[in-house]
Amino acid sequence: MKISVYHTPESTPDNCIPECAVVIDVLRATTTIVTALNNGAKSVKAFSDIDLLLAESDLLSSESRLRLGERGGKKVESCDLGNSPLDCSSDIVKDKQLFISTTNGTRSLQRVESAKTVIAGAIINYGAVVNYLKEHKPTTLWLLGSGWEGGYSLEDTVCAGAIASELVDFNDIDPIGNDEVVSAIALYLQWQDNLLDLFRLSSHGQRLLKLNLDDDLKYCAQKNIVSSVPMQTQKGILTI
Ligand code: MLT
What we know:
The protein is α/β, with parallel strands linked by helices. Helices cover 36% and strands 19% of the residues. Helix 5 packs across helix 6 and helix 6 packs across helix 7.
């Protein structure tokens, strides 16, 4: 397995796609997707364009769908919900088809949608993702963060580090595909017992705190409370 970490979709190499991509947007898109599917949502379809989301979801009855839209951390007015995992309880999402568009996370999903295997990873399910990867051993693996508008994010990198730390042994450099793998593991080893404080330090964490969303940060910082591994089953559509 050759593992590479990329901090954003923009930093991935052109004309290249891995066998397997784990898309990470800890605050909050992939945490929300994992939560919704674990709580019984039928599927989640990701869109980078909100108008496309509205047009496609219009084809379903309002009882069978839910539209989630976020820009700048805030709910998009024309949608039912924003991007808080805390809104995705089973009484709200069970048996619904979800349509989601967020500032960064859904663009990362789109960047790797032609990979053979696309997984949604977060701190809440990274152990299950590691188990899947150990069992299936893809030859090339990208741990792809979402960042913020093209820039680095601590929370996605620490999650990539959590996953990579269980797949890499520094006595065997063969699986290390780029320097970002080593730095992501170092970040994780430094903060593994204090993820919530790291999230509160991060620039997007600060943005969410200004919107009074500390409870979202607390939820997103919990390790392995979910054992589901959402995977892409059709382009842009994730299920468990
Ligand atoms: C994103 O895609 O940038 C995020 O998930 C933003 C958020 O809703 O916190």
